[in-house]
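S1.2 Input.
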Amino acid sequence: MEKREPDKKSSAEWQREEKYLNQTLDIVKRNVENYESEIREMSDQIEEMLQHYHDNDVEVYTQMSNTVTMRDHMQSALKRNQRATKKPYFGRIDFWDETLQKEEALYIGRGGIAKDTTHQVVVDWRAPVANAYYENGLGECSYHAPDGRELPIRLDLKRTYEIDNGRLLDYFDTEVIANDELLTKYLAKNKQAVLGEIIATIQKEQNDIIRKTPYHNIIVQGVAGSGKTTVAMHRISFILYNYAERFRPEDFYIVGSNRILLEYITGVLPDLDVYGIRQMTMEQLFVRLLYEDWDEQSCSILENTAAAQGSMDRGTFGWFQALTEFGARIEAERICMDSVVLDRRQFVEGLKGGVAGVFDEREGEPQPSDLVELLSGKAIRDYVEQTNASVQTKINMLNERLIIKIKDEFLKNGLRYSEKERKAILKEYRGYFGKKIFDISIFELYQRFLLEQKEKGYEVSVPEQAYDVYDLAALAYLYKRMKETEVISEAHHVVIDEAQDYGMMAYAVLKYCMKDCTYTVMGDVSQNIHFGFGLADWEELRKLLCSQDGDSFGILKKSYRNTVEISEFATKILHHGSFEPYPVEPIIRHGKEVEVMQLPTKRELYEETARRCRAWQKQGLNTIAIICRTPEKAELVARQLGRLIPVCESNLEKAVFSDGIMVLPVVYTKGLEFDAVLIFDPDKEEYPVDDGHAKLLYVAATRALHELCVLYREDLTGLIAEPLPEEKQKETDRKVQQLLEEEGTKQSREAQSSGQKVSYNQNGLITDRKEEQARQNTSGISAESKYDNTIENNNIIEDNKGSLQLNKKYGNATGKNEPGPKIKQEIGKVTRQGIGRVTGQKTETNLLENEQEKEMRQETAPPRPKLQVRPRVAATLKKPQIVTPPSQSMLLTGVQPIVIKSKEQKAFEAMQREQEAIKAQAAEKLRKEKLRKKKMPGVPLFGDMPENDRLRPAGHSKIDLTIRWVHERPDGLYLQSRYGMLRICPVSKGGVRVSFRREDTFDAQKSIYEKNGLQYGMAGTRTGMTGTHTGAADPMDSYIDLHVKWKYRDKGSMVEMTTPGLLLEIDKGAGNIRFLTKDRKVLCEERKTECRLIEADKSWQFFDWKKEKISIPNRGNSLGFSMKGSARYIHGKEGELPPVMLSDRGYRVEVLNEGPVICCDIPSYGSYFQVAGTKIDYIMRVEADQMAAEQIFGLQSS
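S1.3 Output.
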């Protein structure tokens, strides 16, 4: 590590750093003033509109809604800039971009800071490129772009800044972010100051967890002080920034062990640019899942601590299994599994006693012709076993299916039933399987379950009004299993902190009730303070949550919170237990020894407590905790101590984490940390020597950042007073010594490499600071070129998420002190081109080289040194020109690379002339299209870019695409979900047609396309839940080839459909389709979550195009184009050929809907095509089958 000392402020490097900092602060100041002014103006506009608004004034309402949205965005930007007024950035990376073949210098801060719409001076720490700062050491490495591509770079400089109140105090050039020296410097500050430096000191193992994909589960075992809560909060911030198209704040739940921890998280999240996250305890989450069945007037919640007083069985996975078996028995009781047979003799219209009606004429044995099997027992059992739904939903669906079968019977044999007989039959069988509403209370069912368990020998009590976490979990399971009829959208991602406090019963129920959710689970099994209920290890939870590819288990073993002395003291407490704890590696930060003091009387005990607290406050330790064993004792101590010194609110229902002296029971300190901690009177009665109490006291001891003290009267707990067993003591001493030696060796290597003298004492390694300060800079790497007009001349293009690319032009130099070979370079245009926000507008800046470079010409091309000092290039803005975008892949966040037009390259000149001709044609086409738009305003044309507000669906409740029924028909495979009907049918050997609509029938309409005088449609059948009818041609029936052989197989969780050229896998849980070749090579996949969406006037079909390129072929005189990072209208004129999307994987998608069609492949909006109307209809066709398509459509391949 190279450290730049403050006495070098006169150096050119230091001056450049200070200049850049001042320039950045000026930009921040201007931004704050501009945002404040604009927010005031918008607020005035909103106030004026409210005065003139009427309920039926749609135009004013729309304008007001847009203004409110813009003001909210402005307020977020204002807060981001206000936070940057004292410290705009904390780090910097310089690297050589292998793809662009250019050098970059990026400053990294807590939020992105922009000079204007195209110039970003500070990168947000969450941006993909910023990962290189946290993840990589110097040298060859890479980072992942938003589209998933890995981009190679060579990292030349990694710098961390110490900035306070707008002043540059220091900076460090280092291989590792926040090395131990820098970490020690940060961690030595008080609690609030440490919070402000967290983002700058995120370590590699923490960064790995933060940046894990949110589409999979992750469990993290983190020792005390490893930053679990901090990592969880930063992970939420990272997901919201990088996965905005899928996750919004309302999609998250944070589950914490107590209200004080949740209040603390609430206060920290806004500093991470996160707002609106819902937070709750595990008990509150299960209450939420009970919906209308929870009555706050008659029911109450018992805290998790109360659960420990009962049986230890209710928190286990075995208890959940017993509950599932109970649920299966209730289901068997409620649903009749026998075949449903209609006996026609039971419903005969006639006269009896002079009264006309329908009578039961059953006598004797029935004839086979009298009996009609409506539903077989096997079909009922298969449906009940295979359908993942509540008992009530199954009853309702079976009732619906039975009525449909009866109506089918009427259609087949209509002449055999009179109108009165039909009504009588329908009345008899309506509600055959049960009522529409579940008529048994889930509380009664739970009491029945507990009584059964009690009869089996379990020691359980039956609650009447107060329920603990495992009671609530069981009730939530029974509600979901028995009663739920409407699936309500809950969170898409749940973050659970202090996860070890809850048993497997809670997690099994959570996974059952929230199936479409992913989890981030943080905990430390060494801190399980709920004896018998929490997790002793992670094995069962890993089997439950980490069973899929992509799920992961991480370990954070380094403690950043405690000093070495506190860590060693706490570890000895833990080693009194019989279990094997996870190893702890503390940062080598020394402090005062832990003091254990005995006081003879209670009065002296309180007086000494008050004296120490006052002394800590004078030292600047602002957050102080006095930790007691129980809530009752904490209340007493707070009351007595409050007579001597001011203490914070002691009512646990009102207390919040804050500066001052807090008196808390140990269970309420979970997840928190304090500058100083005093453990109050831990005697043998409160903390006996056993595993559970060892963990409890360990939690109390590890809450301290800087100082820890134990005060007691008599009978000090053996966890502190008794020495460790000899073997464990030797093992502990060996590990501590090994850690110190490793740290000393590491620092010694660093110190000796820089010429320092090295010495040791009992605390570790000491270096000669004077010699270190006097030592000259021998780096050999100059970053001078990184500062040349960084703010003024850099052209930085920002995408819709604030990710950015710095495009910076350097001249050439030898990198040595003496002049190198003269280089003559003509004044050339350096066209910087980038795609703007979603509108796709182009921006250009033409830069001219300076006068000195005009006289230089490059005659040879020497090998490029690793890092060169290059002269400045003066920048002059020219009038923007229209230039065809280069075909190189967009980098970082969708920015096009630099194209340098050199006159010396003859081949390039020819290509340039050809491009000029193409541009002229494109300009002429653009002129004609503009004229056409004037004639037909509001009509989008092929290649037009849609407005931003058309690219994102409106808010909606959760879409249930779960496949409930599968029907095989001659014209295709029908799959029914609660959301609508999906039909898949072959159109040729290598093509299938996919059709979806909300209603369950395919109504007759005219054919879609007409070509060469022929209509392409077919008169056929109309199929749905109400039967089969003949009718005219339907657009959804067009291009169905009834001669193509196909088959399907129901494989439980998936339906597999096979055609001569394709294999389709339909996920029954998500409803999405996966298209494969016959040799099972993946062609295309619909998005796994909510792959289809129907709105009032438009429909969306989503795909997973992350690893492929989609292009649109030429249409008439219009040129084709790539869809990567773009959104375009791809339909032609009315009556023209259908829109087509081509993939580099060898397939094409043909959209059969009428009207405008938008194709979008922008990460922040998703990959999809959007059509007008409330139906989706497209053909998926492999490349080998294009000939058949061309015969119909005359399409041309691109």
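S1.4 Remarks. The first helix runs from residue 12 to 52.
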